[in-house]
Amino acid sequence: MLTQMTRLEERWQAYTRHPEAGVLADIVLSLHGLGEELTRLNLLRVARICEGIEALALGYMEGGAPPLSATQKQAFSRQLDTLRAAIQLFIPRPREQRQQQEDMAWAAPRRIAVFMADAAPTADILPLLDTVRQIGFEVEEASLDGMATSQRGHVAALLFPNESMPDAPLLAWVRTVRQHCPYTQLILRTPSRNMERQVALLRAGVDLLLQQDEGSEQILRLLLELTEVHEAAAYRVMVVEDSRVASTIIQRTLREHGIESEAVRDPAEVLDRLDSYQPDLVLMDMQMPKLDGIEATRVIRQQKRWRALPIVYLSGEQNIARQIEALRLGGDQFLSKPFNPIMLAAVIKTSVERYRTAQRHTQIDGLTGLLRHSVALQRLELLMEAARQQPLAVAMLDIDHFKAINDSYGHPVGDRVIMALAWLLRGKLRSTDLIARFGGEEFLIALPGADAATARAVLEQLRERFAGQLHGKNDTLLQASFSAGIAHYRPGMSVGDLIERADAALLQAKQQGRNCIVVNTVGDNPAEL
Questions:
Q1: d(CA 477, CA 111)
Q2: Which residue from 518, 529, 368 is spatially nearest to 454, judged by alpha carbons?
Q3: How many structural domains does the chain have?
């Protein structure tokens, strides 16, 4: 991020020396790319600052990008200084980086702050904070009196107001917290469902509102989502355009915005090309020979696999009735030619992100938020293809005596035990690791770059931490443990081979008394383990 920020500042300095529209356009592109990276890293408040500066730069471009006044230049420079200061809070200093590398924890601690309006927390807050710590977060119970919280770089801050606080003191309290944490996501739990009060809280600086009845589980899910980083796979767009010149211009524009594309000049080829290219979005012209864009879209929508694929029309069609018909028969949005390059890129990227988010939701288990069985197998196959240059360890985990937990305490308690292990795995493992609920109380983990010995050390930490947790509520508290089997990938193995080896090690762990970890060493050189 700092490299992107430095490049942005260099372009701004170049513009202040020679105010050219092309340089200002480059600044907009730099801000857009940096904002996307901040969003991918879930630094959402900082991303919002970046987006505001981008909007400011876009405003400067109106009217042919006239030279900026001295006041405008000073204001823009101050905005860039604010953005750099915000980013630096989340970049580890060299000493911290060394400590993270030496630390045995697989993932660096994620920091959150907690602000409580009452001196004494309510009965449900302390158990929640204990759980947050157990799953890998560093929690700072912050005070507004003399604590430089803004210097800590928290990914989120939880706000617990007094339920009886009148609106005016509550809003003043929120504004003060926002001043202490200018770049942090503020999450406030409120018992109120009053629309005007919730709008006032958002205006005061709150980013996310949780209802009182949503409970601790929703807060934990939200914190995990805020700290998970999804792969920044390139956007893939299919350009259906019969004009070679037009498609070339469109593809060049997309390439400048970091978007991959493939051109299809004959709409009759669309179905075959969809299967081979696997795009995230189709950019469709309306007026083409043989069949028009509306007809091609209707055919695409008949295919079950592509019913949710975003289709954006980019056409010179001026007839409003035809545009409405195009949307009614399957299109998602309509952009007119000639197009604004920045608007085109923004529409594509937001549409693709919504599509990918919806796709992710169909791939995850509803209880744990982890990948489902079938999706995990596909991801594991991709990891194995990439493992030719680095080690890859795979583990199967199983909660010990889980049937007895369900029989003795009931399925709701059993579900809480499953969720607790899922939260621990999501909180302590890296965003690049594969974590899946493989079935019932069984989990699959894949650790790219880890040999069997490293994987065993990581899982031992998780096993000890999980075995020390209490699950359930009030008079139904219990402890649980898990057993694990580890296998490591060797060239020539199939997905089935690798899972079978991990399963065999898991069975051996159960036979050894459970609550332990076994590495499958059959056919391996012990020195490698």
A1: 28
A2: 529
A3: 4
**pLDDT the model gives residue 92:** 58
CA distances to 83, 134, 248, 338, 343 from 56, rounded to whole Å, are 13, 43, 30, 23, 15
73-104 burial, b at 16+ Cβ within 10 Å, e below that, comes to: eeebeebbebbeebbebbeeeeeeeeeeeeee
Contacts for 430 with CB less than 8 Å, ≥ 6 apart: 106, 107, 447
Look at strands 259-264 and 281-284 and give their pairing: unpaired
How confident is the model over 94-112, as a mean pLDDT? 51
Strand order in the sheet with 281-284: 259-264, 235-240, 281-284, 311-315, 333-336
pLDDT digits (tens, 9 = 90+) for 449-488: 999 999 999 999 999 999 998 887 767 789 999 999 999 9
Token pair of 132 as six digits: 């947050």
* Alpha carbons 152 and 114: distance in angstroms, whole number: 13
Full domain range(s) for residue 355: 235-360
Residue 260 sits in the same domain as residue 318: yes
Q: Is 98 within the bounds of a domain? A: no
Alpha-carbon span 290 to 273, nearest angstrom: 17
Please compute the mean of the pLDDT values over residues 429-441 and round it to a whole number.
Answer: 90
CA distance 514 to 467: 12
Tell me, yes or no, whether 393 and 349 share the same domain: no
Q: Is 241 helix (H, G, I), strand (E, B) or coil?
A: coil
Task: Looking at mean pLDDT, say which of 110-124, 333-347, 464-478, 496-510 comes out highest.
Answer: 496-510
DSSP 181-237: -TTSEEEEEES---HHHHHHHHHHT--EEEEGGGHHHHHHHHHHHHH-----PPEEE
pLDDT(106) > 70: no
pLDDT for 64: 65
C-alpha 395 chain-centroid distance: 24
The answer to the question of residue 463 being in a domain is yes
Q: Residue 330 CA to chain centroid, in angstroms? A: 29
Q: Let me know whether 377 and 462 are in one domain.
A: yes
> How many C-alpha atoms does 137 have within 13 Å on its Cβ side?
30
Q: Do 271 and 171 share a domain, yes or no?
A: no
Residue 99 falls inside a structural domain: no
Give the pLDDT confidence score for residue 61 in this predicted structure. Answer: 79
- Check residue 108 and report its DSSP letter: P
Assigned domain for 367 exists: no
